[in-house]
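Hi U.,

Before I forget, here's the chain from the pilot set. I'm dumping it here mostly so it's searchable later in email.
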Amino acid sequence: MNRSTLIAPALVFASLLPSCSGVPANGAGEPEPAPSWSRTASLSVARADAPSRTTAADDDDYGLPTEKFAEPQRNFDEVRKSLLASYYDPTLTEEGLYRAAVAGMLERADPSMRKWNRLLSPGDLAELHRDLQGEVVGVGVKISFDPATGYIDVLGALPGSPAEQAGLAPPDKIVTVDGNLYKGRALKDVIGDIRGKAGDKVTLSILRGDKLVTVPLLREKVKYDLVTGLVVDKDVGYVRIPSFNAKTPDALAGVLSDLSAKKVRGLVLDLRGCPGGSFDDAIASVSELLPAGTTVATLKKRAAVEVVPTRRAEVLTGLPMSVLVDHDTSSGGELVAAALQEQAHAVVVGERTFGKWTVQTVEDLPNGYAIKYTLALFQTPSGKSFQGVGLAPDVEVDMPSPAIERALAITDPAKRLDADVQLRTAASLLARGH
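Structure:
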């Protein structure tokens, strides 16, 4: 089987604009580029609420008897035969039972990891690989979804996207997509309907104030989770990484080179909302901010502990640094924040992170499906893990997610600082030499 490795939060196919999950690697040795799983859907791009941490009660619900299960193959076959012969639903098939059995093995063998261990359909796998490339075919709208009402809140639009050109912006609400309603349905249903083939039309009905307006859009390839940078507070560099995908390392290198040419005296790295994504791309990205040969993380695998060093040439090192995090900073975002905290003495500012410190691998099955399961726990360079609890900031500064979203939309550096208390705090700490 082909294998790939990733670090990312809960599985929500469609890839909403990873709000930085998180959203795969090949072989038992070096991890290879992996897709970006996110708890937000990046259809074009979107954000959804982060998954809740697994509780003891949840684990009990998914627990299994611990007594010896003798003759497992024979008893498995007995169960399969009984269900096929006598189960009340005549549509139950042998194929369905085997599919359920594989999904059950992944989700129930280790209840604490059931959010991450999954059976992926061929469609899910295709979405995963597309997300790895950092671009999708859609309209470039950032959304959040409430299944109780079926309303889809517009959080913003990607620059230059069809959604931006059509004027989609908060507080617009998407009521239907091509006439489809979504009350009681899932986020992936919304994403699936908004995405499609480049050049095809999709029609959104938008509730704007007290009016319902129809907005036709043409789908096109849109790039999301772009690394951005600017200079704030005189000569402090600011870089935002929304998630880690195949485009992130090169984009980050370009932004850092530009800031270096501008002779910034400090750097703020913004990982708020970053769900993680590709393990290799997270390692490559943080490598650009640390000297060659620096330990970035340690991987605690089944039978060994593997030290992970930098894997790419440094671009900008030696500057005082602050890292912004929040409750939605997960997985690869946490790995990068912790590595810079320990190896570059960066000051972490914001709120406690999500607490997903696990690495998943994706292995292709012969029938086009794939399995995603936990391969390792990752730790800080010094061997600490914050699985289930999250990384605590050095300087705690609360800021509601909607306020962060509004601040991120501001491009003027002075106005951005005024609106973003966490960024303002991080820049101030650099100015004071902390």
